[in-house]
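I am still getting used to backbone structure tokens and would like to learn alongside you. To get us started, please write out a protein record for me. Start from the sequence, derive the backbone structure tokens from it, and show both lines together. Once you have written the record down, we can walk along the chain together:
***
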Amino acid sequence: MPTDSFFALLNRQEALLPELEDYLEHDGPLGPQIRHPLVYNILHHSNAWANELLRQKQRALSEAVYKQDWHSYVWLHERPWRFDAFCEIAERIEADEDYWSLLGGIWTDSENIWQNYHGWREIFESPPRPHREHFMDEGDRRKARGLKGGLPKVFTVYRGFHDPGVVDGLSWTLDREQAIWFAKRLRPQGATAVLATGTLSRRDVIGYMTGRGEDEIVCLPEDVCGIALTEIGK
């Protein structure tokens, strides 16, 4: 968008589009904010700017659908809605490798796996499309197969949490200290941090993900055996 158009939009007075009005929050931590699937304005100050951004995103989405560019379709959405966007078009992705690769990218980028917990489980539990190994990138696929110092046939996994129900999560790690960090992260006052420790067979690994600098293991929690829970001090 040209600079002059940018400043003109900031200063133009107009009503917020009804589609965005439904996502306007007046009591955000920094003032009014918009959290729409296509438009995130944490510091909302210009209706015209938000309206134009929505129109541009909608045009780009239409083009992505026309070109069957499903990668662009998903990533045009804001992060909390990318899994939902994927589900909208999943059956239209023809190549199995593309399907799993896109899904793996969404997983790695996501910060709200728990909000879509049942959706992720449904995908992982359903009769899988072929080539699910492409949920991982090439390097992680090799490690998941036990190549080049990769995963042994049976290994220890950890999960940190501060809510008793979250032991059933889909995300575990090979790194005990990382799990402890997650247990203490964003812990409400008075809540107890807990470390879950168990064992997993390599054949039950859905994904071995190192894209965020973490030794993350994606699996169904019922496949983790002998889970022991340990309370963690401050």
